[in-house]
Design brief:
Layout (H helix, E strand, L loop, with lengths): L21 H6 L4 H9 L16 H16 L6 H8 L1 H30 L9 H53 L5 H8 L1
Helix pairs in contact: 3-4, 3-6, 5-6
């Protein structure tokens, strides 16, 4: 929202992750400006980034409403199935990140044994090979950290998104039932509990 839409609202700077390159996203470099600013002085409302377009309530609720409308036509509609279909892209991304993370967890075991075998007096591994194994081990650990950060970032986004989507469907159901007089004020109050 811009200040021209509502004079009382603050105009927020654009969300920097949307224009950040791959490397910047992997190590969260895109957020450094606000971190530096926050370390020097308290942040103001105008310092906070605008919500990314793909995470705006309207966007995520439209997506789940589309899949829920399809689910309602089935014999046994499933809220879980609608939520999964609405968030399939990020769920696949999370699954791939979990697989890569698992590989990064297993690979160092082999490399550490190779590096440590260099110190065995009967070792056939040269110093150069041990250094290469050490560098690869470092790169794998750096990759693990980057993948882990991205995984947690996506999980952090998925939770609130699904909560907003589920809340929207419940709200729509309650309001539709209330308008149709099938729910009275007492039943609506009981739904809050």
């Amino acid at each position: 929202m811009t200040s021209s839409d509502d004079p009382k609202k603050t105009s927020f700077p654009p969300y920097p992750e949307e224009s950040a390159n791959f490397f910047s996203r992997m190590i969260f470099w895109w957020i450094q400006d606000i971190l530096i600013k926050g370390s020097k002085s308290p942040l103001q409302e105008s310092d906070v980034f605008a919500c990314p377009t793909k995470l705006e309530s309207k966007t995520v609720t439209n997506r789940v409403n589309y899949y829920w409308a399809k689910e309602k036509r089935k014999k046994k509609p499933s809220l879980g199935r609608a939520l999964v279909k609405a968030n399939l892209k990020i769920l696949i991304k999370i699954l791939i990140q979990c697989v890569i993370e698992s590989i990064f967890l297993l690979a160092p075991t082999v490399l550490v044994s190779k590096v440590s075998s260099y110190f065995d007096p009967n070792s056939t591994i040269t110093q150069r090979e041990a250094l290469i194994y050490g560098c690869v081990l470092f790169a794998i650990n750096a990759g693990y950290v980057a993948v882990r950060n991205a995984l947690y970032w996506n999980l952090h986004r998925l939770g609130p998104t699904m909560r907003i989507q589920a809340s929207t469907l419940v709200y729509n159901k309650v309001m539709t039932s209330y308008v149709n007089d099938s729910l009275g004020p007492k039943q609506v109050d009981e739904l809050r509990i």
